[in-house]
Amino acid sequence: MTRFTFSTPNRARGIAVEVGRGVSQSVGAVARRVRPAARRAFVVTDTNVAPLHADEVAARLSAAGFATAVHPIPAGEPNKTPKTLVSVVRAMVRAGLSRRDLVVAVGGGVVGDVAGLAAALFMRGVVWIGVPTTLLAQVDASVGGKTAVDLPEGKNLLGAFWVPDHVLVDPDRLGTLPDEAWLCGRAEMVKHGLLFDPAHLADLRGLLGSPGERDFDRLAPLIARQVELKLSCIQPDLFESNPGRGGRALLNLGHTVGHAIETLSGHRMQHGRAVALGIVAAARVSERRGIAPPGFESRVRALLGDVGLPLGLDEALAAHGDRALREVLSSDKKRQDHTIPYIALRDFGRPEVLSLAPDEIVDLLRQGPPAR
Ligand SMILES: NC(=O)c1ccc[n+]([C@@H]2O[C@H](COP(=O)([O-])OP(=O)(O)OC[C@H]3O[C@@H](n4cnc5c(N)ncnc54)[C@H](O)[C@@H]3O)[C@@H](O)[C@H]2O)c1
Asked: Which in 81, 89, 230, 336 has the greatest CB count within 10 A?
């Protein structure tokens, strides 16, 4: 088991993330340690994860002496809404939860985002614990305290920073994960490797997308390294205070164009697929602007191909006109006046923040892959 701790400005106690096979079995003891005087635990999960994992987690909390309620929200991104959020908070009231009690999120990134925001808002804030059950949530969403729901105007527009007191990252929870969810997690793992650690990228290349990926003894140390990389990025910039200067904003690599493609597809394209295409886009922008060396897009494509991620950026863009693409890029929530802080790469492990107008991004992408 690997244990990381980090601090936040408004909490006396450090926040712990434990990574290892079986760590989520200790959820009862952890919850007791985090909240010694609590009477109730409120488990937020989704309709898929409830029978697979959350009911068992709830039984462990009951065994540790908590009066435990389980609240499954409907599964999937379309349900990450204010309506679901309010339903969770109202269920907390009905369950008799008080400020000294705790919330436990058992599920993927959608559950973590909704449960964390509900914890932030219920009675102005209760403590929560995360038990992430998707690869994406284990390496990314559960770490760092960003919580949110979507609005019709855009993703994650209603949210708060509300850091969980403890996160139990247990690869054994991934045994039931569908293939598509594996792909989404891989895209974020490659993103972390590209940003921060070329040597780790080589390890990812050797395992992700191969049958060995589901050997949890081999996967666990890679997940632990991912958590470490994310924590070291966010610790100095927990509240993403200055997107123009890097820090936490670097984690948006692949997400500017990725979100645009996701939106233009009417959210029919899965987030992880769109992020993979967004990473190809970032490689192209980097090479076409002369920041990265010649051949960079093709190196990034080879990497993504090796781990089974999609590469069809031009096909995805061909379905939409320049104007539609420009408009959706212009509505990016990180826009500052007329430009967007765009995360580019000088090379593997060497990120750079550019300030680009949506027009420039569209022009660079439309130039197609650089000739080799
Ligand atoms: N807060 C953050 O910092 C942060 C970071 C990255 C992504 N996110 C958010 O995370 C969300 C995506 O998360 P996700 O990819 O985990 O999606 P998700 O939560 O929708 O989970 C994907 C699917 O897998 C199912 N599932 C989850 N765990 C399972 C398991 N162990 N076995 C079987 N099925 C399981 C879910 O029911 C769902 O159908 C997005 O809303 C994104 O905005 C948040």
From this structure: 230
